[in-house]
Amino acid sequence: METDLSYHAAIDGKQDGPFDFDALGVLIKQGKFNKETLVWKQGMADWVPAGEVAELAPVFAPPPPPAAATAKPESPPVTVTAKTEAPKVSEPNLQQASSIDTTKEEQKLKKSIFTSVINIILGVLICLDFLFEADIIDDFLYGLLGSSEITFIIHIIGLLALISGTFTLLRAKHKLKELK
User: Fold this and answer.
1) In this predicted model, what pLDDT tens digit does every residue of 122-136 receive, in sequence order?
2) Which of 8, 134, 157, 161 could form a disulfide with 123 if both were Cys (CB 3.0 to 4.6 A apart)?
3) What's the CA gap between 134 and 155, in Å, rounded?
4) Which helix (H) or strand (E) holds 145?
């Protein structure tokens, strides 16, 4: 992509750049640059999310299909960018850039914890029903399905839900601690 435009970006909570479009494409592939990443270029008043900059839309577009086998490969364009001094990213903007990813990860982990707790509760109830031969779940399933063979399978599923929920809960709590 031939262009003389270059942008500075807040990557991993630090100001970096300038980057041309090709370099931004590499950062996208590495997972270090996305539409929420704060960017700035000479002439802009403040740092803004990359997804709000119309000029950067081509960077996020899918790559074109491969050229036909008979086409000659072109040499990549050489882009020379002038070194401009970007204004320092203000502390709130740096925190915003790093906290966007952290917040999304925390939300995923909290959902995982909630699901794990539900699995543990259901697993405990099913296992207790089996251990104490309360037959509450057996009677419910027999009334619902009309088959007593399925209740053994449900007890096994309950045990697996308990084990799975416990490990998932422990892993999610550990990851949540790492984020904080």
Assistant:
1) 778 877 777 777 667
2) 161
3) 12
4) helix 136-145
| pTM of structure | 0.37
Q: Minimal CA–CA distance to 152: which of 170, 135, 173? A: 135
SS3 109: helix
Cα angle 17, 36, 88 (rounded to 5 degrees) comes to: 40
Three state DSSP letters for 7-60:
EEEEECCEEEEEECHHHHHHHHHCCCCCCCCEEECCCCCCCEEHHHCHHHHHHH
Neighbours of 129 (CB within 10 A): 20
Q: Give the whole-angstrom CA distance, residue 147 versus residue 142.
A: 5
Kindly report, residue by residue over 81-107, the tens digit of the pLDDT. 555 565 565 555 555 555 556 677 778
Question: What phi-psi label fits residue 135: left (phi over 0), alpha (psi between -120 and 50 degrees) or beta?
Answer: left
Task: With CA atoms as reference, report the closest residue to 88 among 34, 17, 5.
Answer: 17
Average pLDDT over the chain, rounded to an integer? 74
